[in-house]
Design goal:
Blueprint: H1 3-6, H2 14-18, H3 21-30, E1 33-37, E2 43-47, H4 50-57, E3 62-63, H5 88-93, H6 102-105, H7 109-121, E4 129-130, H8 131-148, H9 155-165, H10 172-191, H11 200-207, H12 216-247, H13 249-257, H14 262-272, E5 282-284, E6 288-290, E7 293-295, E8 300-303, H15 305-309, H16 344-361, E9 366-367, E10 376-378, E11 383-385, E12 389-391
Parallel strand pairs: 2-8
Antiparallel strand pairs: 1-2, 3-5, 4-12, 5-8, 6-7, 9-12, 10-11
Helix pairs in contact: 7-8, 7-16, 8-12, 9-10, 10-12, 12-13, 12-16, 13-16, 14-16
């Protein structure tokens, strides 16, 4: 395949949403730096080999921000952390990064387990359940609210707003919901840190210097982004992971028998299937050579996380789901370099708790819809399950031997 062969094509058809890997594998092997067109007709350069994607993630010439001054924004949420590059990106990020380390988040594990247990308990005895709406979305929302210390009285309304924002069928209601989320966090930041606490939200506000280089709107956007980003992507990753465990029941059984397997299983599931096939779109600030191809200055660039995660040059037999894979933790699902996902440690913790909870309670869970006929939604940047109907089966709670999945 030559670049000329690829140029008029788009790899992003409906089949891409359900399974992007066959198309991405073809590009990775035959045209690893390809000039493609998005469904909206925008030309992009797509990079698919693991080594090239890694190099691009850390190359400052592939920028997320823009040198063009921005017009005043209607709301703080219109510009997020990923719209900035270092050094200003670093100034904003350091307000939250020390609060989201694995060590700090470990203190929340008991509360996260309790949230999962309460939601899973409600599934017992039900014949048919839509797992995303009944468990994955409320679980991810409640966990991030716990970490941010969002008052319990505020959570139902916030949940409605966030669910509306991520519902692509809601039209104008989505803009209204964004305005309300924006106003909520404007009020939170405007009130100041209040009583000193260990939670993320008050710690961010306390660490912020109103007279410094980080603007108030940037702090508002950071707080809202933590709530919103953790909602959709983590819930979808839970859904995709459960679907794969139902497809590979031997792994589900192994996870039930030995919860200590959970961290390895989570890393392999993150490598194997992800809601985000690409990192955030980059723009070249000058001509950039990738392999034998020069990407011109001013080009928009897609870094294919999914293609890199299944590159046989890094992962042996990459299309096999193998929880004993030694290279699994080398996946790029959370990105790499200065824009590495802030919420990665929390997402790992949530996935570990959610999947071990399901394995313990519902080892005989079965899909209602055949797994090769699941409905998918979204686009080439953010794809996900439209629903995941399951029959939970009998409730079979078993004790967690030593609660050893915490490692």
């Amino acid at each position: 395949m030559t670049e000329e062969d690829v140029r008029p094509r788009t790899p992003f058809d409906r089949a891409f949403l359900a399974d992007p890997h066959p198309s991405l594998a073809r590009y990775r092997e035959e045209c690893p730096v390809a000039h493609v067109v998005t469904p909206a007709g925008r030309p992009m350069w797509m990079i698919t080999r693991d080594a090239d994607v890694r190099a691009a993630f850390t190359d400052p010439r592939l920028a997320l921000g823009t040198a063009t001054p921005r017009r005043p924004q209607r709301r703080a949420l219109n510009v997020t952390l990923v719209d900035h590059d270092p050094p200003h990106h670093t100034r904003i990020r350091r307000l939250a990064a020390p609060l989201l380390t694995p060590r700090r988040l470990e203190a929340y594990r008991p509360a996260i387990r309790a949230i999962a247990a309460e939601l899973l308990d409600r599934l017992g005895g039900r014949g048919e359940v839509e797992l995303l709406s009944a468990f994955a979305y409320p679980f991810s929302f409640q966990v991030i609210c716990e970490v941010l210390a969002v008052p319990a009285a505020d959570r139902p309304e916030l949940y409605d707003w966030i669910a509306t924002v991520f519902d692509r069928t809601r039209g104008e209601a989505r803009a209204t919901a964004l305005d309300r989320i924006d106003a909520y966090f404007q009020d939170v930041v405007g009130r100041g840190p209040g009583e000193p606490g260990d939670d993320v939200l008050s710690s961010i506000v306390a660490a912020w210097d109103p007279g410094g280089e980080v603007a108030r709107d940037e702090v508002v956007s950071l707080c809202a982004m933590l709530l919103m980003a953790g909602y959709e992507s983590t819930a979808q990753m839970i859904g995709m992971s459960v679907a794969e465990l139902l497809r590979h029941r031997e792994i589900l059984a192994a996870l039930r028998a030995d919860p200590a397997l959970a961290p390895r299983a989570v890393e392999e599931l993150l490598r194997y299937h992800t809601p985000g096939p690409f990192g955030t779109v980059r723009t070249t600030t000058e001509d950039v050579r990738v392999g034998g191809t020069v990407i011109p200055a001013g080009s928009r660039v897609l870094l294919s996380i999914s293609a890199a995660n299944r590159d046989p040059a890094r992962h042996d037999r990459p299309d096999l789901l193998d929880v004993d894979r030694s290279t699994a933790a080398g996946h790029l699902t959370f990105g790499m370099g200065p824009h590495y996902c802030l919420g990665a440690p929390l997402a790992r913790l949530e996935l570990t708790v959610a999947l071990t909870g399901i394995a313990r309670r519902f080892p005989r869970m079965t899909p209602v819809t055949p797994l090769d006929r699941l409905s998918w939604q979204g686009n080439h940047l953010n794809r996900g399950l439209a629903e995941l109907l399951v029959r939970p089966g009998p409730y079979e709670e078993t004790p967690a031997p030593g609660d050893t999945e915490a490692t």
